[in-house]
Design a protein that fits this description.
Helix content is 60%, strand content 16%. By secondary structure, it is α+β, with helices and mostly antiparallel strands.
Amino acid sequence: MARDPQTPLDEELARREQEAEPQPIEGELEEAIEAAEEAEAAAEASDNPEAEVLAARVEELEQSVAEAKDQALRAAAEAQNVRRRAEQEAEKARKFALEKFVKELLPVVDSLEKALEAMADEATEAHREGVAMTLKMQRDVLAKFGVEILEPAGEPFDPQFHEAMAMVPNPELDPNTVMDVFQKGYLLNGRLVRPAMVVVSQAAG
């Protein structure tokens, strides 16, 4: 069956239909897709309050952890200082626990020394040896527990360890030199228990 020849009106309609069909433009399509994706990503970021809350919570937790670490370090340092002070106090108590006992014992030592010095010639040798041995035992026990004797004859006068009973002019000695010791002094682990009672030289007038 033969196709009817197109009239001028048909030709004009066909031309307009062809012009009306969309003509794809590749570059514009890609740009439109990219813009849509960016818009979608921006919308997701701005429209997701849960993510913002979680980020804020994470930051808060990190700050809390940092503060907890700092507090733990401070507590550990304080505990170490407390332990060190306790050890020092315990060591001091151990060293000087006998101080009162030593003070009470020193007059006994003084009496034995004076008794040995005052013994007349008529005293028997056995008697002298007995007193001397007792005195030595007393001194050995004191030394065992950290007691030192201060007997500063001929040394410069030191007011921290010596107590001057008298000042005597003496041209043969430098001023402020210990001339004589009335009573010995004692230290307990380096700390003064009793000062030495001394006579001190002074310049001749």
